[in-house]
Each structure stands twice: as C-alpha cells, then as structure tokens.
UniProtKB/TrEMBL annotation:
<dbReference type="InterPro" id="IPR001875">
    <property type="entry name" value="DED_dom"/>
</dbReference>
<dbReference type="InterPro" id="IPR016729">
    <property type="entry name" value="FADD"/>
</dbReference>
<dbReference type="GO" id="GO:0045089">
    <property type="term" value="P:positive regulation of innate immune response"/>
</dbReference>
<dbReference type="GO" id="GO:0097191">
    <property type="term" value="P:extrinsic apoptotic signaling pathway"/>
</dbReference>
<dbReference type="Pfam" id="PF00531">
    <property type="entry name" value="Death"/>
</dbReference>
<dbReference type="InterPro" id="IPR011029">
    <property type="entry name" value="DEATH-like_dom_sf"/>
</dbReference>
<feature type="domain" description="Death">
    <location>
        <begin position="97"/>
        <end position="179"/>
    </location>
</feature>
<feature type="domain" description="DED">
    <location>
        <begin position="3"/>
        <end position="81"/>
    </location>
</feature>
<dbReference type="GO" id="GO:0089720">
    <property type="term" value="F:caspase binding"/>
</dbReference>
<dbReference type="GO" id="GO:0031265">
    <property type="term" value="C:CD95 death-inducing signaling complex"/>
</dbReference>
<dbReference type="Pfam" id="PF01335">
    <property type="entry name" value="DED"/>
</dbReference>
<dbReference type="GO" id="GO:0042981">
    <property type="term" value="P:regulation of apoptotic process"/>
</dbReference>
<protein>
    <submittedName>
        <fullName>FADD protein</fullName>
    </submittedName>
</protein>
<dbReference type="GO" id="GO:0005123">
    <property type="term" value="F:death receptor binding"/>
</dbReference>
<dbReference type="InterPro" id="IPR000488">
    <property type="entry name" value="Death_dom"/>
</dbReference>
Length: 179
C-alpha cells in the first residue's frame, strides 16, 4: 500500500464531519467554493489538495497546518511519523504506483455490489451510486468505497475490507491488499 495514500486514509478515518468542515473553511482561499461544497469526507478534500499540488509526499506543510488549526495533534503526529519514515521504500514493498483502490478496481469488476453488500452498505446507497455512475464500473466501485467509508466513519477498517473480499471469494485481491 502506498504510504502517502495510507496516511490520507488514516487521517480521513479519524476526522469527524465537523473537523472536515473546519478544514474546508481553512481551504476556501485555495479551492473554489463549488469544489468545496462537494467535499464530504477528508479523502475528497485531500484529493483536491493533491490535484492543486498543495500537498504531496514531500510537501506536507499545508496538511500539518490544517491539522494544527483543528487541534488534532494525534493526526498531526501521523504526518510527522510519515515524514520521519524511510524516504525510499525497500525492495519488498509493493509497486508505489499500484494503489489499493486500483487493485480493487482492476480485480473486482462486476462483483462490486457483492463486495459492498458484504461490507454491509445499505441497498439505498448502492442504488444511489449505481444511478450516478451507470456507465463507469470503476467509478461505481470507487464511489461505493467512499460511501462505505462515510457510512462507517472511524469504524471503516482495511481489515473489514479484506474480510469482505475473502467473504466474496476474492482471495487474490485480499492478498494483494494485505501486501
């Protein structure tokens, strides 16, 4: 798993709706109002900040500043630990360009609803994703995963995702995520 994306997932999982709103407020001079209005979880905000090159694996000052302003020293310490970690991954690490979501999208395909049901995502949310992304299978899965994370909040764990993949007999995908 890409350490930088894993960091974002960990931080996002620890943020409440109020804290995400506070971070959005602090970003209003850097991100358009329209984009900010669409943001519901930390991962969405982080994606925009990465697009705008405000944060990157070697550029974490703005992220640290946001976490300081919302008084989340526990999450700030994760960023500091990331900065102090190995700058270059050892040879036994997975390909840094292969992201967990990419692995899931490349291997789950039409089984996406089965996976989401195994994770316990309500049918109403599945129908919403299905309607919004009718012709884009990969985007259905990505949005369904985000919907699951929003729904579960801090209880959205990678271990649950791996367990659900195994429950759907997608063991190869689960193995690749575990790596």
């Amino acid at each position: 798993v890409d350490r930088f994306l894993s960091l974002h997932f960990s931080i996002s999982s620890g943020l409440s709706v109020t804290e995400v709103d506070a971070m959005k407020f602090l970003c209003r001079d850097k991100i358009t109002k329209r984009k900010l209005e669409a943001v519901r979880i930390g991962l969405e905000l982080f994606s925009i900040l990465m697009e705008k090159q405000l944060i990157a694996p070697n550029k974490l000052g703005f992220l640290k500043e946001l976490l300081q302003h919302i008084s989340r020293d526990d999450l700030l310490s994760l960023v500091v630990q990331f900065e102090e970690g190995e700058p270059h991954a050892p040879d036994d690490q997975p390909d840094e360009h292969e992201k967990p979501v990419d692995v899931i999208c490349a291997n789950v395909g039409r089984e996406w609803k089965k996976l989401m049901r195994e994770l316990g995502l309500p049918e109403v949310k599945l129908d919403k994703v299905e309607a919004a992304y009718r012709y884009d299978l990969d985007e259905k899965l990505v949005q369904a995963l985000w919907e699951w994370q929003r729904w579960k909040g801090k209880d959205a764990k990678v271990a649950d995702l791996i367990r659900a993949l195994r429950g759907c007999r997608l063991n190869l995908v689960a193995d690749r995520i575990e790596e």
